[in-house]
Amino acid sequence: MTLIASPGNGPPGNPSASLPLTDKVREALAIAKRGVDELLIESEFAQKLARSEQTGTPLRIKLGLDPTAPDLHLGHTVVLNKMRQLQDLGHQVIFLIGDFTSMIGDPSGRNATRPPLTREQIEENAMTYFRQASLVLDAARTEIRYNSEWCDPLGARGMIQLASRYTVAQMMERDDFTKRYKSGTPIAVHEFLYPLMQGYDSVALKADLELGGTDQKFNLLVGRALQKDYGQEQQCILTMPLLEGLDGIEKMSKSKNNYIGITEAPSTMFGKLMSISDDMMWKYYNLLSFRSLAEIEAVKAEVAGGANPRDAKVALGKEIVARFHSAGAADDALADFVNRSKGGIPDDIPEVSVSGGPMGVPQLLKQAKLCASTSEAMRMIDQGGVRIDGAVISDKGLQVQCGEFVMQVGKRKFARVILG
Fold this sequence. Notes:
Blueprint: H1 23-33, E1 38-40, H2 42-55, E2 60-65, H3 74-88, E3 92-97, H4 119-133, E4 142-146, H5 148-151, H6 155-163, H7 168-171, H8 175-183, H9 189-205, E5 209-213, H10 217-229, E6 236-240, H11 266-274, H12 278-288, H13 293-304, H14 309-324, H15 327-341, E7 351-354, E8 359-360, H16 361-367, H17 374-382, E9 386-388, E10 391-392, E11 399-400, E12 403-409, E13 413-419
Parallel strand pairs: 2-3, 2-5, 3-4, 5-6, 7-13
Antiparallel strand pairs: 1-6, 8-11, 9-10, 9-12, 12-13
């Protein structure tokens, strides 16, 4: 069986030809390079841009995401923002949903085999992916593909032929595989297939540029190698830094509960952005803000000169909330944040009815869905994070009498509870 790539834009131009770089090309290159960790190989990409300008043929720019969770967060938008910038330059962006590769499980950065998703989980998650990505990308100008289109037809013979194009020694150059092998941590054979399949996606799509986080560099390089093996012009690769989450340490992740979801309520999103450290704020500015680098540097200079960093954080928070909601929602989120910081109660808190009163505070917090469990509720009480009608609760054994009152957990969780 012969491996056949799906149709693209025809044969590439002569990669050895050297075209002059116009001011427009240099400007496009500067936009592409903003905030990136690496652009490999920059000279090749500059020539691709020059050829695109000369021929009027847009570059094919690929981003693959495995639908491993149903929601996107701001960490995902770092690379999506870059895609949108390149899209606005007139290039064809391809949003690739890895429905096939999700069933393998990406081992990147992991010290254990990642459990593959079921077909049902993949389909459920994929349903919301592009809708949410369209909050950043221009949906009308985005090509959506699923890598099962070309991976499923390969069959066993095709997979074996593909595997013959890469050696075990090449695979072991990958840092996480090497560490796991040296430590005696098992590496399943199917994990070697993941970077091969991701690389084959680039062959199938005839990609000119592939984007990803820094943890995807190895997989992106496999795409370059396979394209060369298939006689295609090699893609360039652009890696974006990983965005740390609210803890300022680990990369943003739902599993680590340090994330800001792009579909979260405006007040929740704004409150979480205001909780990041002053130092981390500048990385968020560089990777998430659409303001120019000159504007960001001006804001940094103002803060260095004595301006309150809180004002800079408010401006960032309003920009992000307005992007995913509206300018009015951003103003309301700021007002809500100020109200809460003064001990006030938001206007739009949920109302919850609970029966069985009187009831102990930990159980009531669980029943009102303000805490996931009574043990979490007791921890929050110990930390002074629980209030009833504004009064801090310190007694874990307190019995709450029937009635209506406002309960608060932490800075952002409120509920109007009716206990009967």
